[in-house]
Design a protein that fits this description.
single chain, 263 residues, alpha/beta, TIM Barrel, globular, binds zinc ion
């Protein structure tokens, strides 16, 4: 089987989009790489949502490193931002430059901390409606915040026309109903993003590069995920080295929605 590399980028904050996305898109263009972006459609949580969703994270922790200053936190509580509407122009670049743009839920916090108590149908439909309004097309892929999913989620996603998910573990793609699950094959502990995980256990960039090269080379489908807020802002050099190595080794680069091998 042909070796393939996919990269998923989760966008779930204003800073991640404004400060991470433009230069990261430039980097992708430089190497002619295509990535799969997944966007939280509902913006930041407001004070009521913050209070309602205080429960500790029970699902896999997506975040290892604390990237928020006290000032950031205070601003978000007092003045929650609709970061999708506020950054429309930058976000539209994703599609214009040929990348995939899928949905990463409506509100991230409610989904990861309170999935059993939220109206799943409402969350998914609101996200979809917003997506159509802003990007003028239907989303076809969805990645659940915190990989948090269940039967109801799958049912609603399938009904709303989603064709690709990436929420289940594995080395190979598989069908869930009519939807294809393209797994993230290279993850950190508790399915955290691999680079962030390796940093959190004290690895240097050159050590991480070595590990990543090895992990990518040994798989038919090599896939990992990053966040706009962290890796796309602070680890671009490391990502550039990873892209170089993918190219040098003749590994094919695809968007998640283009991956159908073995299905
Ligand atoms: Zn997320």
């Amino acid at each position: 089987m042909e070796k393939t590399f996919t990269l998923r980028v989760d966008l779930e904050s204003d800073k991640g989009i404004r400060k991470g996305l433009p230069e990261f898109l430039d980097l992708l263009a430089k190497y002619k790489m295509k990535a799969s972006f997944y966007l939280v459609m509902g913006g930041e949580s407001n004070i009521f949502e913050l209070l309602r969703n205080r429960k500790k994270l029970s699902s896999s922790g997506e975040r290892k490193i604390n990237v928020w200053s006290l000032r950031d936190k205070a601003r978000m509580v007092l003045l929650p931002k609709n970061f999708v509407r506020a950054n429309k122009k930058i976000l539209k670049r994703i599609l214009k430059e040929g990348h995939e743009l899928g949905v990463h839920g409506w509100k991230h916090r409610a989904w990861t901390r309170n999935l059993n108590n939220i109206d799943i149908q409402e969350h998914i439909l609101k996200a979809k409606r917003e997506y159509v309004m802003i990007f003028n097309r239907e989303p076809t892929s969805f990645a659940a915040p915190g990989f948090n999913t269940n039967k109801k989620v799958l049912e609603v996603l399938e009904k709303s026309g989603i064709k690709f998910i990436s929420d289940f573990v594995g080395e190979k793609p598989a069908y869930y109903g009519k939807m294809k699950n393209i797994p993230i094959t290279i993850c950190g502990k508790d399915r955290t993003p691999i680079i962030e995980h390796l940093i959190s256990i004290g690895k240097r960039d050159d050590e991480i590069l070595k590990i990543m090269k090895k992990e990518i080379k040994k798989r038919d489908l090599a896939s990992f995920y990053i966040h706009g807020l962290f890796e796309a802002r602070f680890k671009r050099d490391l990502l550039e080295d990873i892209f170089k190595s993918v190219k040098r080794n003749g590994i094919k680069n695809k968007r998640i929605i283009d991956y159908c091998e073995g299905l």
